[in-house]
UniProtKB/TrEMBL annotation:
Name of protein: Pyruvate, phosphate dikinase
Domain (PEP-utilising enzyme C-terminal) ranges: 531-882
Residues the record lists as binding Mg(2+): 758, 782
Organism per entry: Notoacmeibacter ruber
PEP-utilising enzyme mobile domain: residues covered: 436-516
Length: 884
C-alpha cells in the first residue's frame, strides 16, 4: 500500500485519472507537473490516509517514513531544507477531495515558519515586511485550523496595532509593525494554551496534516456533502507543496482565471487578481480584486485598463494565456485556474473544470465540438440535462431586492410575480382583464384548472412535488411553489399570513418555483432565452438517442408548445381536464346524477361534440405523430359541486332539488378515492362513458385525417387496469364503436388499445394482459404509490425523514426506485414481450422527465418516455446521454 505521490520538476507519480485516491486537486497538480507546467513541487497523501484517519483517529504507521522520503525529494527539487536555519523550505498544506468542495475544508500556507526562519527569510529577500507578514499569516491560519483558537482575537489584535500605528490598510504596515503584531500573537497563544506556539516544524507539519484530515468531518463539509449527494466515506487527500509568494514584492500577485467567461461562455481570459497578495486575499473581500484582461477592465467598476493584469504584468499575462489554452486543449473543457506570480515568475497552483451558467455550458460545448477539441458525444455528455430548466423559464433578476416571506417545495420551475388571488374564478376573470395573478390555494383540484391556467404562477400551502398543483403546473410550464407550510390562507377573510405579516387579495407577491422561495412584492424578472446553441445541442441529442420522446398534455392547446420543444407525439392525453372547461362540467354533473337513460343520453350528447372537437384539434396539431388518449380516470365525486353556491347553481340548472345532489354526492363519497371507483372501473360500471369517449376519438380521427390528408392512428389507453378481463370488457366496446364509426363514415381507422400499468397486479400478470392489448405505458406516479403502498399526497413528510436517516437515497416520486418499482417494470416488459415481441412500451408520469430515471428506461429497452412539455428538451438530452 502506497500513501504518498510526488509531483514536480516535469514529472509526477500520479495522473489526472487518479482523482479517487489523489483528490481532484492532487490529480491535476500531478498532471500539470507531467505536462511541464510551472507547478511548485510537492506531494499528495492519498484519500486512503483520510479514510484510515476517520476510522482510527490516527494515521497509518508507514506514513511517516513515506512522508520523510517525499520530503527529501521535495528538498532536492527546491534546493531548500525543511526546518533549516537558512534557506528553509516553506509549505502549503491543502485539502482536496475527489469532488470539488470549495472552501469547505482547511488549507494552511507558509508552514515551516518560526522565529528563526522569519529572520532568515527577511535577510534572504532583503524585505522584512514580506517575511514578517508571511509569519503572521501562518500563525493566524495555524491557530485557526490546528490550535482551534478563535480568529476574532487575532483580528482584534491586528486592528489595535493598525490603529495605534495609524495604518488604514494592511498594505501600509511596515516590517516593524508586523513584527509587533507577531509578538502579540505569540504572547496571546501562549496565554491561551499554556504553552508556546510550536517552533518545531515537524510538529507543525504533523498538526497541519491532522487538521486537514479532520476537516473532512467538520460540520460544514458534512452539510455540503449531504446537500450535493457526495459519499461520506471517500475522504480528502492532503497536498503538501512548496510555497510560492504572491506577496513577495511589487512584481508579485495572485489570482484566479477562467478560460472562458463563465456567464456567457465567450472565449476570453476572465478572472481577478491582486498584486502583492496571497491566495486567500482574493476571496476574503478585504481588498477588491482587479480584472485580468484589459477588455474585462472596461466593464469593471473603478480603475481603467491600466489596473488589469494584462497591462500591469504583461509577460505573466501572456504566459498565463498560453497555459490556459494548453490546459483547455489538454482537458477538453473550460478550466478554472489558480495562479501566483512570484517576482515576475508565473506559477500554476490548481486547475479544475470550471463552473458555468447553463447558457455558457451550451455555448462552450458547441464551440469546443466545432473546434475539434471534443467530439459531439462528449459535448452532449458535458451538459447536465436538468440545467436546461433554467433556460426554459423566467427567473428572478439576481440583483432584485429580496424580502423572503416563506419557503415551500420547488414544485414547478420558473419565477413569476403577480397579485394574490384566492379563487380560481376570480383569477380567470382578472387575467382576462390583463392582470397578472398568483393563484394562492391551500391545495388545488381539477376544478381549479381554469384559474391555474389564467395565473402566472401557483402557490399552495399543502401538498408535495407530485401534488395536483405541482403536476398540473409543470404540465402548463407555470412556476409553482407547493407545501409552503408556514403560510396561512384564510379564504373567508381573503388573506395570506405568516409570522406577524398579513397580505390581502390584490397584494403583489413573487414566487420562485425553481428554489421554492416566496417573496413579498413584485420583483424584476429575466426572460428565458432559447439560443442557437440550445437548438444545436438538442439536434445532436436527437441524432444520438434511441428512445422517442413524447409529451403529456391535458388540453389540446398545449400540443403546440410541446411540438416547439421537440415532442414526437403524445404519450398521455388526460381527458378529464377537458370536462372541467366552460359548460361541460354541467353536462358531466348531469351524467353522474342521471337516474334515467334519457338523462344520461342527453348529457352524453352534449359532451360528445365538445370532446370530438378537442380531439380533432389535438390530432391536427400532432398530424403524423402518435397520440395516446387515456379514457376517464378520476373518481366521480371530483366532478361534483363543492361549495353550497355551486350546489344551488347545479340544482337550478339541472332542475333537480339540492337534496338529491347532496344525497348522490354522499353515495359517491369514498374513504380512499385514489384506490376507489376510478379508472377502468368507471368504464365498466358506466359503459356509456367510454362509448362516448371512444366515439369522439374515432370520429375525430376520421375528420382530422380528412383535413390533414394524413392517417391518424389513435392509441386508446385504459387506466388503473389489474385484470385481463377488464381490458377485454372495454376492448369489446372500443372495437364495436370503431366498427360503427368506420361503417358510418366509410373511412378506415387504424388504432391500438393499451393499458397504463400502475398496479402491481397488472405487472405480474402482464403475460395474460398482453394478449389483450397492444401497448404498455407505465404510470410510474401511481405505480410508485401502489408498489410502496405510500400516498404521494402524504409521503413528503416522512420521506424527508427517511432521506435524512439514510433509509432512502432519493424521493421515489422524483427519482424512480429502480430496485422496486423498476423491477416491477422489468417484470412487466419481459412477460409482455414473451407473448408479443412487438409490444410497445413507454413511461408517462413525472419520472419520464428525470435523467436518472430515463437512464433506467433506456436500459430496460422502453420505446419512449413521455413527460410534461417543458421537460421535453431535458428528456431529449437525457435519452441521448443514456444511449451513449
Ligand atoms: P481551496 O480548495 O479552498 O481553494 P487551496 O488548497 O486551493 O484551497 O488553497 C487556498 C489558497 O491558497 C488558494 O488561493 C491557493 O492559490 C493558495 N495556495 C495554495 N498552495 C499554495 C502554494 N504552494 N503557494 C502559494 N499559494 C498557495
Ligand atoms: Mg483552491
Ligand atoms: Mg394514474
Amino acid at each position: 500500500q502506497r500513501y504518498v505521490y510526488v509531483f514536480g520538476a516535469g514529472e509526477a507519480d500520479g495522473t489526472a485519472e487518479m482523482s479517487d485516491i489523489l483528490g481532484g486537486k492532487g490529480a491535476n497538480l500531478a498532471e500539470m507537473a507531467s505536462l511541464g507546467l510551472p507547478v511548485p513541487p510537492g506531494f499528495t497523501l492519498t484519500t486512503e490516509v483520510c479514510q484510515y484517519f476517520s476510522r482510527h483517529r490516527s494515521v497509518p504507521d508507514d506514513l511517516e517514513d513515506e512522508v520523510r522520503k517525499a520530503m527529501t525529494s521535495l528538498e532536492a527539487m527546491t534546493g531548500r531544507r525543511f526546518g533549516a536555519a537558512q534557506h528553509s523550505l516553506l509549505l502549503s498544506v491543502r485539502s482536496g477531495a475527489r469532488a470539488s468542495m470549495p472552501g469547505m475544508m482547511d488549507t494552511i500556507l507558509n508552514l515551516g515558519m518560526n522565529d528563526l526562519a522569519v529572520e532568515a527569510l527577511a535577510e534572504e529577500t532583503g524585505d522584512g515586511r514580506f517575511a514578517w507578514d508571511s509569519y503572521r499569516r501562518f500563525i493566524q491560519m495555524y491557530s485557526d485550523t490546528v490550535l482551534r483558537l478563535d480568529l476574532e482575537f487575532f483580528e482584534e489584535i491586528l486592528e489595535e496595532e493598525r490603529e495605534k500605528r495609524g495604518r488604514s490598510e494592511d498594505m501600509e504596515m511596515t516590517a516593524d509593525d508586523w513584527k509587533a503584531v507577531v509578538a502579540r500573537y505569540l504572547e496571546f497563544i501562549e496565554e491561551e494554551l499554556g504553552e508556546p506556539f510550536p517552533q518545531d516544524v515537524e510538529i507543525q507539519l504533523r498538526g497541519a496534516i491532522r487538521a486537514v484530515l479532520g476537516s473532512w468531518m467538520n460540520p460544514r463539509a458534512i452539510a455540503f456533502r449531504a446537500l450535493h449527494g457526495l459519499q461520506e466515506q471517500e475522504g480528502t487527500a492532503v497536498n503538501i507543496q512548496a510555497m510560492v509568494f504572491g506577496n513577495r514584492d511589487d512584481r508579485s500577485a495572485t489570482g484566479v482565471c477562467f478560460t472562458r467567461e463563465p456567464n456567457t461562455g465567450e472565449k476570453t481570459l476572465y478572472g481577478e487578481y491582486l498584486p502583492r497578495a496571497q491566495g486567500e486575499d482574493v476571496v476574503s473581500g478585504l481588498r477588491t480584486p482587479l480584472p485580468l484582461s484589459a477588455q474585462q477592465a472596461h466593464g469593471h467598476s473603478g480603475n481603467g485598463a491600466e489596473c488589469s493584469m494584462e497591462v500591469a504584468f504583461p509577460d505573466a499575462y501572456a504566459e498565463l494565456k498560453a497555459v490556459a489554452g494548453r490546459l483547455e486543449a489538454h482537458y477538453g473543457d473550460m478550466q478554472d485556474i489558480e495562479f501566483t506570480i512570484e517576482s515576475g515568475q508565473l506559477y500554476i497552483l490548481q486547475t479544475r473544470a470550471a463552473k458555468r451558467s447553463a447558457g455558457a455550458a451550451l455555448r462552450i460545448a458547441v464551440e469546443m465540438a466545432d473546434a475539434g477539441l471534443i467530439d459531439r458525444d462528449d459535448a452532449l455528455l458535458r451538459i447536465d440535462p436538468l440545467s436546461l430548466v433554467s433556460l426554459l423559464h423566467a427567473s428572478i433578476d439576481p440583483n432584485a431586492e429580496r424580502d423572503e416571506i416563506a419557503r415551500g417545495l420547488p414544485a414547478a420551475p420558473g419565477a413569476a410575480c403577480g397579485q394574490i388571488v384566492f379563487s380560481p374564478d376570480e383569477a380567470a376573470e382578472l387575467a382576462e382583464r390583463g392582470k397578472k395573478i398568483i393563484l394562492v390555494r391551500t391545495e388545488t383540484s381539477p376544478e381549479d384548472i381554469h384559474g391555474m391556467s389564467a395565473a402566472e404562477g401557483i402557490l399552495t400551502t399543502r401538498g408535495g412535488t407530485t401534488s395536483h398543483a405541482a403536476v398540473v403546473a409543470r404540465g402548463m410550464g407555470k412556476p409553482c411553489v407547493s407545501g409552503a407550510g408556514t403560510l396561512r390562507v384564510d379564504y373567508a377573510a381573503k388573506t395570506l399570513s405568516t409570522m406577524g405579516r398579513t397580505f390581502s387579495e390584490g397584494d403583489l407577491i413573487t414566487i420562485d418555483g425553481t428554489s421554492g422561495e416566496v417573496f413579498a412584492g413584485g420583483m424584476t424578472m429575466r426572460k428565458p432565452q432559447l439560443s442557437e446553441d440550445f437548438q444545436t445541442i438538442l439536434q445532436w441529442a436527437d441524432a444520438a438517442r434511441r428512445m422517442k420522446v413524447r409529451t403529456n398534455i391535458d388540453v389540446a392547446g398545449d400540443a403546440d408548445l410541446a411540438r416547439d420543444f421537440g415532442a414526437e407525439g403524445i404519450g398521455l392525453c388526460r381527458t378529464e381536464h377537458m370536462f372541467f372547461e366552460d359548460g361541460r362540467i354541467l353536462a358531466m354533473r348531469q351524467l353522474i346524477l342521471a337516474e334515467t337513460d334519457r338523462d344520461r343520453e342527453s348529457a352524453l350528447l352534449t359532451l360528445l361534440p365538445s370532446q370530438r372537437d378537442d380531439f380533432i384539434e389535438l390530432f391536427e396539431q400532432m398530424a403524423g405523430f402518435p397520440v395516446t388518449i387515456r379514457l376517464l380516470d378520476p373518481p366521480f365525486h371530483e366532478f361534483l359541486p363543492q361549495s353550497d353556491e355551486e350546489l344551488q347553481e347545479t340544482a337550478d340548472l339541472l332542475n333537480v332539488p339540492v337534496e338529491k345532489i347532496e344525497f348522490r354526492a354522499e353515495t359517491l363519497l369514498e374513504t380512499n378515492p385514489m384506490l376507489g371507483h376510478r379508472g377502468v372501473r368507471v368504464a365498466i360500471s358506466y359503459p356509456a362513458i367510454p362509448e362516448m369517449q371512444v366515439r369522439a376519438i374515432f370520429e375525430a380521427a376520421v375528420e382530422a385525417g380528412r383535413r390533414t390528408g394524413r392517417q391518424v392512428k389513435p392509441e386508446i389507453m385504459l387506466p388503473l387496469v389489474s385484470l385481463q378481463r377488464e381490458v377485454d370488457f372495454v376492448r369489446e366496446i372500443i372495437d364495436r364503436v370503431g366498427r360503427e364509426v368506420m361503417k358510418e363514415t366509410g373511412a378506415s381507422v387504424e388504432y391500438t388499445v393499451g393499458i397504463l400499468i400502475e398496479l402491481p397486479r397488472a405487472a405480474v400478470r402482464a403475460r395474460l394482459i398482453a394478449e389483450s392489448c397492444d401497448f404498455f405505458s407505465f404510470g410510474t406516479n401511481d405505480l410508485t404509490q401502489t408498489v410502496f403502498g405510500i400516498s404521494r399526497d402524504d409521503a413528503a413528510q416522512f420521506l424527508e425523514t427517511y432521506r435524512q436517516a439514510g433509509i432512502v437515497e432519493a424521493n421515489p416520486f422524483i427519482t424512480l426506485d429502480v430496485e422496486g418499482v423498476g423491477e416491477m417494470i422489468k417484470i412487466a416488459c419481459e412477460k409482455g414481450r414473451s407473448v408479443k415481441a412487438d409490444l410497445m412500451t413507454g413511461i408517462c408520469g413525472e419520472h419520464a422527465g428525470d435523467p436518472k430515471s430515463i437512464e433506467f428506461c433506456e436500459q430496460t429497452g422502453l420505446d419512449y418516455v413521455s413527460c410534461s412539455p417543458f421537460r421535453v428538451p431535458i428528456a431529449r438530452l437525457a435519452a441521448a446521454q443514456a444511449a451513449l
